[in-house]
Amino acid sequence: MNEYKLSERLLKVAQFVPKSTKVADIGSDHAYLPSYLTVRDTTLLAIAGEINEGPYQSAKKQIERLGLSNRIQVRKGSGLAVIEDSDQVDVITIAGMGGALITSILEEGKGKLGHVKRLILQPNVGAIFIRDWLLANHWSLIDEVIIEEDEKIYEVLVAEKGHDLIYDENRDAKLLLGPFLMKEASLTFIKKWTNEQKHWTQILHRLEQANESEDNQKKKAELKKKIQMVQEVI
């Protein structure tokens, strides 16, 4: 991958990074996103955080090769532990993980979010976990994007500090589907949730053939609720 050519999903993440900020990219892999951001904006500073030794070393080599060592710090560590109070990070990006993992990273690192003004999060699955966490922790969802790349569908969520009033109506559907994405109802959005609905219907059919139990009844009720929510939107 060329350091100046990002995947479509990372380009979407990059589009939401304000200029002249300090960014911490968590789970940075080979530091492609920080590299792109600093080349695009000569006033931007970045931290590339990576827990795994291989990508950490690759990121260091890439930054050195690009001559960006004075603007990008590559740090090894788990989640937001790579951020220090003195860094005064403005923006945190976390991309390419499951929504539940991104949520756990944010929860474990809550003490590092004091100076942060914006979160840009790209879950591969489970965006509902992130929306739920943002709402519970007084982060306001300000934008969402859904894209398809290499036959996979991704969502990008952008949040800033504040009380979120967007969920005051139709809360459950908005947490599951995304309030901005529901409103736009793009072809990619419809494709994603049509496929999900088919999958849930198949599971529901299997559950209806199985023995009745309290757990089984609960699962069926949850599936029926989700199927109905999707049907009402698409």
Task: Give an overview of the whole structure.
The chain is an alpha/beta fold. The protein folds into two domains: 8-166, Rossmann fold (3-Layer(aba) Sandwich), CATH 3.40.50; 189-233. Helix content is 46%, strand content 21%. A seven-stranded mixed beta sheet has the order 3-2-1-4-5-7-6, sandwiched between helices. Strand 6 and strand 7 (152-161) form a beta hairpin. Helix 4 (99-108) packs parallel to helix 5 (127-136). The two termini are 36 Å apart. The model has no long low-confidence stretch (mean pLDDT 94).
Core attributes:
234 residues; alpha/beta; Rossmann fold; 9 helices
Q: What radius of gyration results from the CA coordinates? A: 19 Å
- The helix count comes to 9
Largest sheet: spatial strand order: 3-2-1-4-5-7-6
The proportion of strand residues reads 15-25%
Number of domains: 2
Shape, principal axes of CA atoms? elongated
**CATH homologous superfamily placement of the largest domain:** Vaccinia Virus protein VP39
Q: Please identify the structural class as seen in this structure.
A: alpha/beta
* CATH fold title of the largest domain: Rossmann fold
Low-confidence parts, pLDDT < 50 over ≥5 residues?
none
CATH class of the largest domain: Alpha Beta
How confident is the prediction overall: mean pLDDT?
A: 94
Based on the coordinates given, report the CATH architecture of the largest domain: 3-Layer(aba) Sandwich
